[in-house]
């Protein structure tokens, strides 16, 4: 299963000027799929979600400009995602000890969040760095959501970070959709690293195929434009 990107894919993923509209297609798909997994948000195309879509877009583009993943970058990402949410504090969570009120899924105590986030980043950079990249991201994703560091937007934040990490490591992004939602959430809640690792690899391979199709279309359009220019009086 091929997921590692090549030079031409990197240009697609990183050069917003070269691929222009295709880059917008990529980021839009990431943002829309990210929000579509959140049942409580309802229709992502509704008027009430316009600001949330915009905030996710701003957060992801801010992430892409960051040279490395740090605690400060993660907090800034969540703050952007929650920017227009009423009664949501900036920074780490100040209350709560269960995931969505489920007594069977404990999360970090508020006073332990900062410590646990530092440990998560340490493990990601120094313990899991030799692992298969999809297993590494599965571990990070599961642990991030177990800590549940923010009062809202933890899922959206975690998936933007996931795709930032994938692109930074030279792999195609992971775009989950509604069909993946229930199994993904269930696997996450039971800390099923293998299921999430395999899901991430499958989705990354699918995205690489889509990227290749878009690049071929872009390059084909470029050839047609050049031929038209040569045949015109302005060529």
Short summary:
With 235 residues, the protein is mostly helical. It is built from 10 helices and 2 strands; from the N terminus they run H-H-H-H-H-E-E-H-H-H-H-H.
Describe the structure.
There is one protein chain. Helices cover 64% and strands 3% of the residues. The chain is an all-alpha fold and 235 residues long. The protein has one domain: Fido-like domain (Fic-like fold, Orthogonal Bundle). A hairpin with a 2-residue loop joins β1 (98-99) and β2 (102-106). It starts with 6 loop residues before the first helix and ends with a helix. The relative contact order is 0.14.
Chain-wise SSE layout:
Elements: H1 7-14, H2 16-19, H3 21-36, H4 50-64, H5 71-81, E1 98-99, E2 102-106, H6 113-127, H7 133-147, H8 154-168, H9 178-189, H10 193-231
Antiparallel strand pairs: 1-2
């Amino acid at each position: 299963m091929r997921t590692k990107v090549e030079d031409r894919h990197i240009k697609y993923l990183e050069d917003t000027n070269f691929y222009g509209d295709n880059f917008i297609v990529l980021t839009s798909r990431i943002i829309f799929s990210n929000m579509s997994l959140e049942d409580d948000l309802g229709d992502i195309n509704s008027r009430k979600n316009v600001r949330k879509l915009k905030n996710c877009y701003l957060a992801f583009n801010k992430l892409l400009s960051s040279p490395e993943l740090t605690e400060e970058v993660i907090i800034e990402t969540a703050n952007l995602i929650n920017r227009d949410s009423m009664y949501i504090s900036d920074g780490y969570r100040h209350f709560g000890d269960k995931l969505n009120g489920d007594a069977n899924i404990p999360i970090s105590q508020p006073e332990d969040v900062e410590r646990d986030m530092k440990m998560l980043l340490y493990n990601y950079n120094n313990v899991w760095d030799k692992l298969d990249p999809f297993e590494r991201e599965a571990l990070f994703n599961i642990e991030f959501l177990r800590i549940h560091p923010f009062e809202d937007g933890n899922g959206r934040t975690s998936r933007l970070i996931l795709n930032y990490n994938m692109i930074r490591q030279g792999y195609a992004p992971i775009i989950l959709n509604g069909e993946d939602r229930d199994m993904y959430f269930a696997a996450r809640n039971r800390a099923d690293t293998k299921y999430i690792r395999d899901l991430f690899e499958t989705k990354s391979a699918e995205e690489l195929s889509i990227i290749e199709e878009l690049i071929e279309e872009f390059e084909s359009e470029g050839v047609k434009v050049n031929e038209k220019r040569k045949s015109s009086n302005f060529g």
